Amino acid sequence: MFLRILMTGLLIAGCLTAQDNPFEAPPELQAFARKTTLHHPSVRAKLQALLEGLYRTPEQGGLGITYDNAYTRTVEEAWRDKKGNCLSLTALYVSACRAIDLRVQYAEALNTTRWRRVGSVIRYERHVVSLVQIPPAEDLVADFLPEFRRRMGAYRVVILNEKTMRSLFYANRAVELMENGLPEEAIKYANLSIKVEKRLSIGWNILGVVEKSLNNLVEAENSFRKAMLIDPSDVGALGNLEAILRETGRMDEAGKLREISHEIRKHDPYFNAFLAEEAMGEGDLDEALRRINTAIKIQPHDPDFHLARARIHLLAGKTDAAIKAIQEAQRRAEPAERARYDDKMAAIKSMKEDPKK
User: Is the overall model pTM greater than 0.85, yes or no?
Assistant: First the structure.
């Protein structure tokens, strides 16, 4: 079963009603934003002061807001708890920026997505950030860390509108409710996701997943087909519909959908990286290396791909190739992250000198 969804967790707070705005900033957050940026005249200085004030530790003079993937919080909940996942923290930061009249947009970081298996479910997890344009021609991306990244280069983003963000929020909540054994509530949130943004396929796909969990196969199939009408390239809906078709004996149509799905996904570097991890776990190192090489060919600048290739080489006993892959990962990494690769290289070199270690 495939889900196309942002970072999600396992616990649920109080449920929202249809009229609630999950991104409404509490007065305390607005006051904090104004106070923190009061003496900073430039846009860049205000943005930096906000990031540092929110996300640096109390010892460093900040509030110490931290990443937490327990569930997708509203802005008010993230402010109250001083934690949240990427969607919640991005919404909190955007709300703080808007409280001081800065022009800020939601965005998706395209090269931080990943596929992963959770039990019998395969998830496609995406990552949201905020983007601020500073005249005349500077774009800065704010992640849930007290630092900026430039929009260009390895960190690629696309703009998301407010409706899309809200639809993703409700979709996240639907998944979390389903995982906590509350399918009827999950259906309500999936329908909210659809209602907020009818041009997205995600709400229909997740509604189908929830219906399928209830063994409502007809309703699930209808939802997956509606998702595909909106976005024929939605591999989550494609995979889920294919599974229903196979369960109900319609093998010809299922086979056609699989061909379409494979054609789409073969160009997805993250799906190839996921398949490399799966093959590695099964001990098929040749397939793992083939898949990670495909991911690197499509997207060579992702350091995690090179790090995965190093792990595969290590499992195959090829220490020289592993060292070379880690060096390439280090070269592709952000400057602030490069030091973490030194210990990895030192450990491999030590293994090479003394194979008994």
Answer: no
